[in-house]
Amino acid sequence: MADSELALSGELNYHTVPGLWKKTSVLLSQGAVSSIDLKDVTRADSAGIAYLIEVIREARKRHQTVDVRHIPDQLTAIGAVSGLQQILGKR
Question: In this structure, what is the dihedral angle of CA atoms 29, 21, 45, 79, given to the nearest 10 degrees?
Fold first, then answer.
């Protein structure tokens, strides 16, 4: 797999995730994503968590690994409440 980072910015929510998923799924099918950087994400909600879980699930299905970096506090909190810290790489 190519060492390629997908840097996201802006909001990661119900409105933005569907279009983002379409682009990301194409990149995953090409083996073109090794990490996702959320450093510039300004706002995120449960749709953002769903997106990340789907990315990780799809990558595993393809025997790939995607590292998620700089997870915003909002997503960390949602992940903690949902018991998803391990999936998101937070322990």
Answer: -20
pLDDT at residue 58 greater than cutoff 90: yes
Overall size of the chain counted in residues? 91
Residue type, 52: L
pTM of the model: 0.82
Round to whole Å and give the CA distance between 35 and 14: 22
Element (H, E) at 76: helix 73-82
Q: Which CATH number fits domain 5-82: 3.90.180.10, 3.60.150.10, 3.20.20.70, 3.30.750.24?
A: 3.30.750.24
Tell me the pLDDT band of 1, cut-offs 50, 70 and 90: very low
- Looking up tokens 């909190």 gives 77
Q: Are 61 and 42 in contact (CB under 8 A)?
A: no
Binning pLDDT at 50, 70 and 90, where does residue 75 land? confident
